[in-house]
Amino acid sequence: MTVLKTSMRSFFSHKGRMALSGIAIVLSVAFVCGTLVFTDTLNSTFDKFFAATASDVTVGPEEEENGQETGREGTLPEGVVDRVRAVDGVESAEGVVINTSITVVDGDGESVGGATGAPTIGADWGPDTQRSMELTEGREPGGPGEALLDADTARRQGLAIGDELEIVAVSGRHAVTVTGLVEFSSTNPGAPYLLLEPAAARTALLGAADVISSVHVTAAGGVADEELKERIGAALGGGFDIDTRAENEEAMADDVGGFLDVMRYAMLGFAGIAVLVGVFLIVNTFSMLVAQRTREIGLLRAIGSSRRQVNRSVLAEALLLGVLGSIVGIGAGVGLAVGLMKVMNSAGINMDTSELTVTWSTPVAGLLVGVVATVLAAWLPARRAGRVSPMAALRDAGTPGDAAAGRVRGALGLVLTGAGVACLVAAAGAEEAGEGSLFLSGGLLLTLFGAIVLAPLLASGVVRVLGAVVLRMFGPVGRMAGRNARRNPRRTGATAGALMIGLALVGSLSVVGSSVVASASDQLDRSVGADFIIDTSGQLITPEAAEAVRSTPGLAHVTDYTVVSVELTTPDGRTTAHDVTAADPTYARDLRAPTVAGELPAAYEPDHLSVGETFAEEHGLSVGDELTARFVGGDEGVRLTLGAITSDRTLIDSQAMYLSTDTARAHLPAEKMPLNMVMFAKAEEGQKDAVYAELRERMAPFPQYEVSDQADYKQALEDEIGMLLNIVYALLALAIIVAVLGVVNTLALSVVERTREIGLMRAIGLSRRQLRRMVRLESVVIALFGALLGLGLGLGWGATAQRVLEQEGFTVLEIPWPTILAVFAGSAVVGLAAALFPAFRAGRMNVLRAIATD
Which part of the chain is the MacB-like periplasmic core domain (predicted)? Predict the structure, then answer.
């Protein structure tokens, strides 16, 4: 009990020394808890929205498995509503019209799009819709040219009652005037809703006056949803999809669940990196505290405290630090979640802070992360404290180094690093991407831990070199700063190691991102022969838009490009479903896809196709073989001849199968022929600039499509990858902030440890300004040491990752030297910033009191 009381007194008497370690725990736990609260709230928001919009039973058209993407919504005859109403147990049944494939254009020709890619939804303003929405302003639509708009979209897009909008659908274009605004009874997650009078909705959204999208059924009292589903199924017979409320809610939740899971696990992954970096800080803090209290611990041992008691005293301090830091971190995590919700609201995804969801698992997870990480990090320093001899009470603070431990560390570090390098070499030489990825993962972990173990052993030599380059110009002060950084290699190595982790990830991702962009640009230059690309961002090109492209003067050719669903039976007897690219024969010139057998133009001959080399190897195919095809929704038993086998080592259309659009049209009814997903065009010789301007003008009424030349396409690709990398860098900034706290903590404790030494230097003439400069330079050289290790690892990881990705067509290694050099120089700035407080504290020391310190 005495030892425990002593540890508690020590903790609270040195709470300033614990503060920065506590901040690291707070940040790590806050990121974990904030992620959990945010994603739980987002899940809850969607669940409430789905519950508000789902009916007891829904009757819809039967969906064909692997059906063709025609852009037309599935429909039911309007008469089905009366048949459903007649079923025993139905309280009410309403025909519903909905279309999620429309584009709404405002008066300025801009798309009224959803937040973060959410679809624009057109629906009817009928009894079913009115149960989940309320007209809050204006009046109901009274005819074909009027519509309601949800209030959230109106606020976000600056629209108001009286504004003119245009609906762009497969069935054509329809002008409407906004007559009112509606709000949801629950939170709308961010999809724009345009609501038309029911008869007008059927014509404008579904293309016919006598069809509906589905029937929403309310069960009579005492009738279970499952029972009513069975009754309706028996009454209607086959040809319908009938789902209960629970099934609908589950299906809708699954649609968004994948996105939410990716977001949750990605953010938790970055939180894990921050926790790992925080562990370094805590290990360093407790190691320094144990070293500074060596004499005190020796006295405790001399008066009878056992090793176990001393060990427990240090762990008790760590436990208290972990608990306090975790509790504050949980609260900060809730605040972080609220902040993320505000950011999402500004982006158009509506999240109400009153619906904040904090489940019991969130604080438990926060406490586990904080406490376990802290106690595990303090375990090694606690063991070191337990080994302090009673004779240490007779020595000055500090313990002699353990040469045997250093040799073991060196041997272990070399083994880990050597094994990691061997894995990276194996990954770079692997012939398959899957095998290479496995070796790459092992190499990343082994080289990281190897560098962590070796960092203290490398510290003296590397810091000496850095000091000679960086510190020489600062004279005696610079030399003292270098010696201080080399004085305790274990401390310097651990401090730099925390910074190393974040910068290694930054360096490797920079190399991978730049290589992806360079590879794609190189392949576009070598493979794409088209001058213009009409991209859809996942939508389909309406017939009206496609005609606008084809009618542009000055075009040498226009290529249709779509995907048809086909079941292929190979000569080995196996049948598999595939999306096969259907394109015009000119696509062989628009994309010069490399082949390993045959010539690509042969694939566009009648009843011919091409396959990728992996598919051909799996099924033992060669050029001239015949495959049997079933076009989903069309002809069966079609004999297709293999005209070419394309290489899979390409970024564009990797492993694609090709056939001509004429072949697809010959075996599919017109209503089942998919719409274009992309279009390509080539200008007449010497008319590229003029045609480009004309093409963009003709496509202006269709803002959902992007018209690009090759330069635009490359820039868009670079911007997209750059934005993704910026998000990753922002998340990695948390780990770097924790690492900076480690530098601050190390320097602050180091200043305390060297109090008497600083007093003596001041006494013999070192000025305050020189003293502060010495501390800052020490911080800079430690930060540069961490940057050198981290960026060195990152370059190795990134180059190896590019070699693995080479199997997927990323053939160009691009090292972004400006970024790497900027990060290295930025590390010096980080070191300067981290030293501000410790340097200020050192400069304020009273010389006489510092000299008198034990």
Answer: 20-234, 492-697
Give the contacts of 410 (CB within 8 A, at least 6 positions apart): 454, 457
Q: What is the pLDDT of residues 155-211, one digit of tens each?
A: 888 899 999 999 888 878 899 999 999 988 776 667 788 999 999 999 989 888 889
Tokens 């006494």 belong to which residue?
Answer: 763
Angle at 288 between CA 285 and CA 291, to 5 degrees: 150
Distance of alpha carbon 388 from alpha carbon 383, whole angstroms: 9
Model-level pTM? Answer: 0.77
Q: What angle do CA 680, 683, 685 make, to 5 degrees?
A: 150
Burial-class residue 849 by CB neighbours within 10 Å (0-12, 13-18, 19+): exposed
pLDDT at 629 over 70: yes
Coil, helix or strand for 171? coil
Instruction: Say yes or no to pLDDT of 678 above 80.
Output: yes
Q: Which residue matches tokens 């991702």?
A: 509
Residue type at position 4: L
325 vs 38, 271, 330, 756, CA distance in Å?
20, 15, 9, 32
Distance CA 702, CA 228 (A): 44
For residue 271, give the DSSP letter. Answer: H
Whether residue 743 contacts residue 493, with contact meaning beta carbons closer than 8 Å, is answered with no
Joined together, the tokens standing for residue 384 give 């070191």
pLDDT value of residue 397: 46
Chain position carrying tokens 């605040």? 335
Contact predicate 89/217, CB 8 Å = no
**Three-class secondary structure of residue 759 per DSSP:** helix
Q: Where are the beta strands (DSSP E) in 532-668?
A: 532-535, 555-569, 575-583, 595-598, 608-612, 626-631, 638-646, 658-660
pLDDT of residue 603: 93
Strand partners, 174: 167
Query: Tens of pLDDT along 633-659?
Result: 899 999 999 999 998 888 788 888 999
Is the per-residue pLDDT at 619 higher than 70?
Answer: yes
| Residue 269 per-residue DSSP state | H
Q: Has residue 129 got a pLDDT over 70?
A: yes
Give the span between the Cα atoms of 715 and 721, in whole angstroms: 10
Tokens of 317: 């301090």
Considering the chain, what is the average pLDDT of its residues? Answer: 83
Tell me, letter by letter, the H, E, C secondary structure of 796-831.
HHHHHHHHHHHHHCCCCCCCCHHHHHHHHHHHHHHH
Q: Which of 453, 832, 538, 532 is nearest to 711 (CA)?
A: 532
Q: How far is CA 154 from the centre of its chain?
A: 29
Pairing of the two strands 146-150 and 172-184: parallel
Distances (CA, A) of 721 to 265, 355, 539, 716: 20, 34, 21, 9
Q: What tokens does 532 get?
A: 């213009």
Whole-number Å distance between alpha carbons of 330 and 321: 14
Is the alpha carbon torsion for 366, 367, 372, 374 positive or negative? positive
Residue 842's pLDDT band, with cuts at 50, 70 and 90, is confident
With a CB cutoff of 8 Å and minimum separation 6, the contacts of 31 are 267, 270, 271, 274, 333, 336, 734
Lowest mean pLDDT among 35-39, 51-55, 244-248, 544-548: 51-55
Residue type at 62 in one-letter notation: E
| Predicted pLDDT of residue 370 | 87
Cβ contacts of residue 720 below 8 Å, gap of 6+?
Answer: none
CB 499 within 8 A of CB 743: yes
Q: From CA 323, how far away is CA 367, in angstroms rounded?
A: 7
The separation between the first and the last C-alpha atoms of the chain, rounded to the nearest angstrom, is: 27
For strand 172-184 and strand 133-138, is the pairing parallel, antiparallel, or unpaired?
A: antiparallel
405 — pLDDT class (breaks 50, 70, 90): low
What whole-number distance in Å separates Cα of residue 794 and Cα of residue 502? Answer: 10
Residue 116 reports pLDDT greater than 60: no
